[in-house]
Amino acid sequence: MAEAYIIDAVRSPVGRRNGGLAKVHSADLGAHAMKSVVERSGVDPAAVDEVIFGCLDQIGPQAMDVARTSWLAAGLPESTPGTTIDRQCGSAQQAISFAAQAVMSGTSDLVVAGGVQNMSAIPMMSATAAAAGLGFPDPFSGSTGWTQRYGDQPVSQFHGAEMIAEKWGLTREVMEEFAITSHERALAAQAAGYFDREIEPLAGLLADEGPRVPDRAKIASLKPLTPGGRITAAMASQISDGSAALLLASERAVAEHGLTPRARIHHISARGDDPIIMLTAPIPATAHALARTGLTIDDIDIVEINEAFAPVVLAWLAETGADPAKVNVNGGAIALGHPLGATGAKLMTTMLHELERRGARYGLQTMCEAGGQANVTIIERL
Fold this sequence. Notes:
Blueprint: E1 5-11, E2 15-16, H1 26-41, E3 50-54, H2 66-73, E4 82-85, H3 91-105, E5 110-118, H4 126-133, H5 144-150, H6 157-167, H7 172-192, H8 216-221, E6 240-249, H9 251-257, E7 263-272, H10 282-293, E8 302-305, H11 310-320, H12 333-336, H13 343-358, E9 362-369, E10 373-381
Parallel strand pairs: 3-4, 3-5, 8-9
Antiparallel strand pairs: 1-6, 1-7, 2-6, 5-6, 7-10, 9-10
Helix pairs in contact: 1-2, 3-13, 6-11, 10-11
Protein name: Acetyl-CoA C-acetyltransferase
InterPro entries: Thiolase (IPR002155), Thiolase-like (IPR016039), Thiolase_C (IPR020617), Thiolase_CS (IPR020613), Thiolase_N (IPR020616)
Active site: 89, 338, 368
C-alpha cells in the first residue's frame, strides 16, 4: 500500500474562553496554522492539492467553507480548494484521515489537514441554537426513527459522562485527582519548553492559556454540572480557541520536493458505540485498531486520548490496560483546552513532537465524538 507521510505539524497556542485569541477571526485563526505549516515545510504552496479542515458550528465567521476562506486569508494560492468537515470533536482527526486516504489512493500528493475553532466568538451549539431561533427543534426531536430506537433518553455529553462514571465505579475523588494530574503535567511540560517547537505564536500569545496550579479546596467545592451528579467543571475540557495543521505527502511528493518525512500514518480507522452513553467509543475503536495492525497496547509508546471528561480516559484505561504513564503525558484538554474542530490536529501535533523528543516509535490517538463515535490514528516516527 502507498504511504502517507507527515512532513510537518504546527499549532497555534490555545486561548482560554474570552482570552488572547477571542477576537481573532476564525478564518485568520485557521490561516495562521495553514501558512505556518506550509512555510515550515518549505514546499511551494501552489503544489498543495487540497486543504481539509475540521470545524463545528459553521455559522458566522466559520461559515462558507472556513477551510477555503482560511487558505485565502493566509494569502495562499487560489488554485488550491478547501473542504470543511464536521465530525464533532473528531473533526480535525477525521480531516487528517481523509487527507491520508487521498494520498494513499494516489488522488493527491500534498494535502494540508487540520482544524480551527473560535469558541469565544461562536459558542458551542451555536448552530443548534440558531436553528431553534428559526423554529426548528433540536436534532433528535421529531425523528420517528430515532424515537423508536432510543426513546426519549437524554442525548447529552454531560449525561454520558455521568453514565460512564456510574458504570465504571469512578468516584468524584478519583476523577478530581485525574484532573489535577492533567494540570500538573501540562505545567511541567510548559516549564520544560516541550510545546515551544510545535507552537507558532499568534496575537501576542506565546503559550497555552489553560494550565493553572490546581486549587484542591476550590475543586472539591465545585457543584456538579447535573443535579446529584459527580462530574464538575474541573473534570471537563476547557472551552478554547485555536487551530492546528499538518502537511501530508505521498512518496512521489517527498522525492519531487526534497522533503524529509517526520512520521508515517500507520493506521486510520473509526468505530461507533451507544450514542446515549456517547463517550465510550474510544474503547472498541482502540481494540479494533490494535487488532487490525497486530500491535498490542504495550507496543504503543505514547497515547493522546482527548480529555473531554475525566471518566472518558479513566474508563479507557481500565478497559485497555494501558500504562497511565504513557497517556496524555503532557496533560490533556482538561488543562490545555479543547478547541473542538481543531483538537484532533492539535493532539497529533503534540504527539508527533513528543515521539521525537523521546525517540519513540508508535503513537496512538483517539477521541470520543458526539453520536457515540471515535477515531483512532496510529503514527510511526521515522
